[in-house]
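[Discussion] Sanity-checking designs against the backbone

I'm trying to build intuition for which residues belong where. Below is a structure token string of 457 positions. I'd appreciate it if someone posts a full sequence so I can compare it with mine line by line.
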């Protein structure tokens, strides 16, 4: 009988041990990582669905725009020497075969003035940014200079045309015409010729009417101009094909992201306010890595493009995903608060009660994502936070039987959720504020845990 009493006392002492409780709480935290993992997958799945819906909207409205042009395209005859075998004598002989090649000449100067009116386009519960852009371009072409290896009689001046390349042919909303000197040229799409001449399939090509054969004989420099109205989405980019390329862009969008191979002039990046932005680029041929003329085929120059993307700042899914990354911290610190209360007050809290509190904390994220899909992230965060903090505070009162502990839990959780919300909103100072906040939390934990007697545990 005495042995049984000793075993019972040892078992009770083991259950009351703070060390055992700490390991139990740690195990529960690891268990709660499972629902957190599934919640993160849910957010990613919803974000993917939103991205698919936005891509569908953009596809119907008009895609991302990259514009390259105008470019003079002149065919010429090139004789290629081939080796053939006579079927009768089996002797080899050389034969020259005439083949039509193309030369491409880029403009001397290119000035582009763009105004993009951005609007929000929605479908169901999702929104994206699209725009209507007005592009006005002008510049100069100089006399095309062929290689000395190409005889003048092989140049087909009467078949020369002007071409413009774009990634958003569908979005063009006007009949594109180009004023070249005294001539007015109309453009038509040319898909087959683009593929046959090895031009990048990234672009769709517009080709003009035939140029007047004597056009370049009459002028050393020929001015040109054209206007293009485009419906597009995501971004507007240009390729600096001019020997000097000047681009001015204006938009009512408040969150531009300047990207590509060239950034705008430093003074233009400061022209961003609540009314939109203005940007200015001035690029010379010495700033890029291609020449002003190409023979044989025109390479894909999209890697040299520059421009702006009309980004949507952190949406509700990005913010929700970022908040779940702090889920482990929220659960751990909340359990730590309860552990300190338990250690100081000598009130026993069952592991099942810890588990219920942890599940309530994970429910915050499902509430957040479901509400913020229909309302703003701020409103979703407030509703989810108030609901979870109130639930856990009332549950604490029923478990610990004291309002002062319930009030402590309410204040602790409110402070934690406020701290996480501030970090999510910050971008440049998130690490700084997070580090300071965690240091303050650690200091508070060390202060309140200083009276815990660990000697018998």
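Best answer:
Here's mine. Compare freely.
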């Amino acid at each position: 009988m005495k042995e049984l009493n000793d075993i019972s006392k040892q078992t009770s002492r083991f259950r009351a041990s703070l060390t055992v409780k700490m390991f139990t709480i740690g195990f529960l935290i690891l268990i709660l990582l499972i629902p957190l993992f599934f919640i993160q997958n849910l957010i990613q799945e919803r974000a993917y669905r939103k991205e698919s819906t936005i891509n569908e909207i953009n596809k119907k409205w008009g895609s991302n725009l990259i514009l390259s042009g105008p470019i003079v395209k002149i065919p010429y005859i090139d004789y290629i020497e081939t080796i053939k075998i006579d079927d009768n004598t089996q002797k080899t002989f050389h034969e020259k075969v005439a083949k039509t090649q193309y030369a491409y000449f880029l403009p001397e100067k290119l000035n582009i003035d763009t105004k993009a009116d951005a609007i929000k386009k929605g479908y169901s519960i999702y929104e994206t940014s699209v725009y209507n852009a007005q592009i006005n371009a002008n510049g100069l072409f100089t006399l095309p200079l062929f290689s000395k290896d190409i005889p003048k009689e092989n140049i087909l001046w009467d078949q020369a045309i002007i071409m413009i390349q774009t990634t958003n042919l569908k979005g063009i909303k006007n009949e594109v015409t180009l004023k070249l000197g005294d001539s007015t040229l109309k453009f038509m799409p040319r898909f087959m010729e683009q593929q046959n001449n090895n031009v990048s399939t990234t672009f769709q090509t517009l080709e003009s009417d035939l140029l007047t054969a004597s056009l370049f004989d009459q002028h050393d420099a020929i001015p040109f101009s054209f206007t293009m109205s485009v419906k597009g989405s995501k971004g507007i980019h240009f390729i600096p094909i001019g020997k000097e390329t000047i681009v001015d862009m204006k938009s009512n969008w408040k969150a531009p992201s300047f990207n590509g191979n060239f950034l705008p002039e430093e003074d233009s990046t400061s022209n961003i306010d609540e009314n939109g932005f203005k940007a200015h680029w001035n690029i010379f041929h010495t700033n890029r890595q291609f020449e002003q003329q190409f023979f044989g085929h025109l390479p894909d120059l999209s890697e040299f493009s520059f421009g702006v993307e009309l980004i949507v700042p952190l949406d509700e899914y990005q913010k929700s995903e970022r908040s779940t990354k702090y889920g482990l911290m929220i659960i751990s610190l909340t359990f730590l608060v309860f552990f300190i209360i338990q250690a100081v007050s000598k009130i026993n809290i069952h592991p099942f009660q810890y588990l219920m509190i942890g599940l309530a904390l994970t429910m915050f994220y499902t509430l957040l994502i479901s509400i913020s899909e229909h309302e703003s992230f701020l409103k979703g965060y407030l509703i989810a936070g108030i609901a979870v903090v109130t639930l856990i505070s009332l549950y604490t009162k029923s478990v610990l039987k004291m309002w002062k502990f319930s009030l402590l839990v309410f204040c602790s959780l409110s402070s934690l959720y406020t701290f996480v919300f501030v970090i999510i909103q910050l971008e440049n100072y998130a690490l700084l504020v997070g580090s300071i906040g965690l240091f303050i939390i650690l200091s508070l934990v060390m202060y309140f845990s200083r009276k815990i007697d660990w000697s018998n545990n």
